[in-house]
Design brief:
By secondary structure, the protein is of the alpha/beta class. The protein folds into 2 domains: 188 residues, Rossmann fold (3-Layer(aba) Sandwich); 167 residues, Glycogen Phosphorylase B (Rossmann fold), CATH 3.40.50. A 7-stranded parallel β-sheet has the order 3-2-1-4-5-6-7, with helices on both faces. A 6-stranded parallel β-sheet has the order 10-9-8-11-12-13, sandwiched between helices. β6, α7 and β7 form a beta-alpha-beta unit.
């Protein structure tokens, strides 16, 4: 007997919600590759459907007419359109961290992180009030809560006190494909004017907790090789202007390359050709770029945050949030490169699409039990 699941993706405005979009998309892609008794229906905007044709080809889609990306419109649609359309499904999966106050149950709720509790200063007053009101109520309404890591699972249990058996980990999954060729790596070097010297990549939006400033200070004080480039890949966030000013003030305009958002193929080629992916973030629910880099055979240097330590295991160089502590990181990468690449590839086996999709299917079955 099939388990029919209405998956609420109305919150997911393509390109604007960061890693949470990739997290749900990859879970569903992994689920679709398995022989399971779970049958999801995607409740999403037409913009989401256009952005993810592979999912649309695999699963049925229901879209409200005229819904745009405004949060207020999405909340109204969840309490009206979605509440009606999801009736009759065995499970409703709310993937954006909150569940509406009305609507059918049982509910599987995905909570990506609780950053608003640890770093409230990075949230607008209105957004903070909304999350403080909705998050505890959403967790209470859910039959099961899914999190991307044990770190987030622990924070949910500590913050809201649900039965621990109701909170499960559904990890990120990465698609392991064909690595970019030497020619493709050379092409992105030329396209982004990287020269022939070494470079490191930081794939992250310019939000405060991503800690771009640490890398800029390290470049100015310690990584002073004039041929070395720091490539900042990702969208413009809340401290975009601050990052731009720091690059100028530190005299790094010729050594920091900022292509912004790039096509996935270019991103993969940039990472594959890099000396390392550097990831000094101060807060993550998971840290998917670590696994993505390992899948491409690129060593990782990351910050000492619980989620990053959990994901990286022994396959990365983990450093504290201190400029001087990062000074010798690239020399260590060169010295340990063979070891880091090998352990990284082994680490990826724990985070495949099949692993993620299987964990999601298990979470759906637990929601019914």
């Amino acid at each position: 007997m099939m388990v029919d699941v209405a998956v609420n993706l109305l919150w997911c405005t393509p390109g604007e919600v960061g890693g949470s979009e990739e997290y749900l998309v990859r879970q569903l892609a992994g689920l679709g590759e398995l022989d399971t008794d779970v049958a999801p229906t995607l409740c999403c905007t037409t913009a989401f459907a256009r952005a993810h044709p592979d999912l649309v080809a695999r699963f049925p889609v229901r879209s409200p007419i005229g819904l745009v990306g405004r949060r207020s419109a999405r909340i109204v649609a969840e309490h009206t359109w979605l509440a009606r359309r999801a009736a009759g499904f065995d499970i409703v999966h709310h993937g954006g961290g909150t569940a509406p106050l009305i609507g059918p149950r049982p509910i599987l709720l995905t909570v990506h992180d609780l950053q608003y509790l640890e770093l409230p200063q990075y949230f607008s007053p209105l957004r903070l009030r909304y999350l403080r009101f909705m998050m505890p109520r959403s967790v209470a309404r859910a039959s099961v809560v899914a999190t991307p890591s044990e770190f987030v699972r622990g924070t949910v249990i500590d913050a809201f006190g649900p039965d621990e058996a109701r909170v499960v980990v559904v990890p990120h999954g990465v698609r392991v494909g064909i690595a970019p060729t030497v020619d493709q790596v050379g092409a992105v070097r030329r396209r982004y004017v990287l020269g022939e010297g070494p470079y490191v990549v930081y794939p992250a939006i310019t939000h405060p907790h991503k800690n771009h400033q640490l890398l800029l200070d390290v470049m100015a004080r310690h990584w002073t090789d004039p041929e070395l480039r720091l490539v900042l890949v990702g969208g413009a966030g809340a401290v975009e202007s601050d990052v731009g000013r720091a690059i100028v003030d530190l005299g790094l305009r010729g050594r920091v390359v900022r292509p912004g958002r790039v096509p996935a193929a270019d991103r993969d080629a940039l990472i594959a050709g890099a000396t390392a992916v550097v990831f000094p973030s101060r807060y993550e629910g998971f840290g998917a770029p670590l696994i993505e880099a390992m899948a491409l055979g690129t060593p990782v240097v990351c910050g000492d945050h619980p989620a990053l330590r959990e994901v990286a295991g022994s396959a990365a160089i983990v450093l504290p949030d201190d400029v001087d502590a990062w000074s010798g990181a690239l020399e260590e990468v060169v010295r340990r490169r063979v070891e880091l690449v090998a352990t990284g590839r082994e680490r990826v086996s724990h985070y495949t699409l099949a692993v993620s999709g299987g964990a999601l299917a298990d979470a759906y079955h637990r929601t019914l039990s």
